Amino acid sequence: MKNTCYILRGLPGTGKSTLARLLSAANSATVWAIVRTFSTDDLFINEEGVYEFDPSMLRQHHQENLRQATEFISRDLREDHEEIHMTRIAIIDNTNVQHWEYEPYVTAAEEAGWDVQIIPLAWNYYDIPEYAKRTKHGVPEEAIRRMADRWEDLPKKYVVFPTIHDKLRVDGQTQWSAPPYDSTQTFDK
Ligand SMILES: Nc1ncnc2c1ncn2[C@@H]1O[C@H](COP(=O)(O)OP(=O)(O)OP(=O)(O)O)[C@@H](O)[C@H]1O
Ligand SMILES: [Mg+2]
Questions:
Q1: Confidence (pTM)
Q2: Which of 27, 95, 117, 185 is least surrounded by Cβ atoms within 10 Å, i.e. has the fewest?
Q3: Which residue has the higher pLDDT, 154 or 169?
Q4: Nearest alpha carbon to residue 118 among 5, 3, 1, 33
């Protein structure tokens, strides 16, 4: 199996970390793999193990998450390194509402010759109050609505995770896709 970077996208409370745990468990069980999950949220956990959001640190923590993921993805393993024969799996567990937010991860993975799988978590505008109840990070409903308004659908150039939600034709070939909320919209790339 090829080294793979899974990039999760989803509003708060829509199940990203749940899926990250499932992917991590599935990959650990089925291939001889090193799986690492990178989430900016985790960098807000203080020394007592408590999540403490500080908006002034958001940019810095996003940069640090990218740095750690890139370091893992582009690590140059020597022939005698025991991990050289293992498949490496990186899971990016961030909201990734707009494309620019996850493009650097795509670039790092592609430059290292990894597969990239972008997985949008389906969401629905009417369920936002429910997501606000589910999120572990206290994101208010209003903030989730603002993120929903900024949401960008997946450009067709990316490989997408097979799901039963929808089927698209891309470059003359049938592909599977899970548009998060509007399967009729046209793609921008
Ligand atoms: N499809 C679902 N239906 C019902 N509950 C779900 C679903 N997906 C996740 N949950 C539950 O919702 C809660 C939040 O899920 P999770 O932590 O995976 O979301 P998230 O997208 O990582 O949110 P955030 O990081 O913003 O808190 C968890 O208690 C999880 O068990
Ligand atoms: Mg989460």
A1: 0.83
A2: 185
A3: 154
A4: 5
